[in-house]
């Protein structure tokens, strides 16, 4: 289950830059776009548990062929968001509150390992850059800007772990929740700012164990906020 955090999972990808130039929407990008849109509809309550996903209608709405939609549904089946029923089609899976919590807890464990490594690896310059990011996030009022800074904060920790395997796992875990999902919870900005300061203090003190514990709790708490938000949206109402 995202976000968004990482944000829930955007914390490992390199952000695109203006100098990168336009990109063609290749098959992999179309698959990812379709998967993200289906996640968004599921976690916003637009698609309810047990609802059949109309692949043709979705492809038409997105302006793409049915192939990337089918590929996206296979990916979402592996994630537990969608369930394929033989000769009937793809349906939104029934997820429990603990399914959501468990995703964030696992995400937190892996993120905590990255923070533990980062506490040993971050240079003084990198730590100062993270303090600057925290300052900017505290002064930002736009949610999109807050989310972007949150993304960058966690990205720096994850890359400082200097572990290709951890980055790979974080990429998988992070992309499985709708963009901007738990960040939509009304108290997220204040909670994120406070947590970031504690995490920064542990990293600056080179306290690897504390950094790991704090990041694990940061993501576990995000899971509780995700559950609360889904409850507000009537995700489990029938």
TrEMBL record:
Keywords: DNA-binding, Transcription, Transcription regulation
Pfam families linked to this entry: FCD, GntR
Matching InterPro entries: GntR_C, TF_FadR/GntR_C, Tscrpt_reg_HTH_GntR, WH-like_DNA-bd_sf, WH_DNA-bd_sf
Domain HTH gntR-type: 28-95
Keyword Transcription listed: yes
Region Disordered, annotated ranges: 1-28
Official protein name in the record: GntR family transcriptional regulator
Organism: Amycolatopsis albidoflavus
Taxonomic classification: Bacteria, Bacillati, Actinomycetota, Actinomycetes, Pseudonocardiales
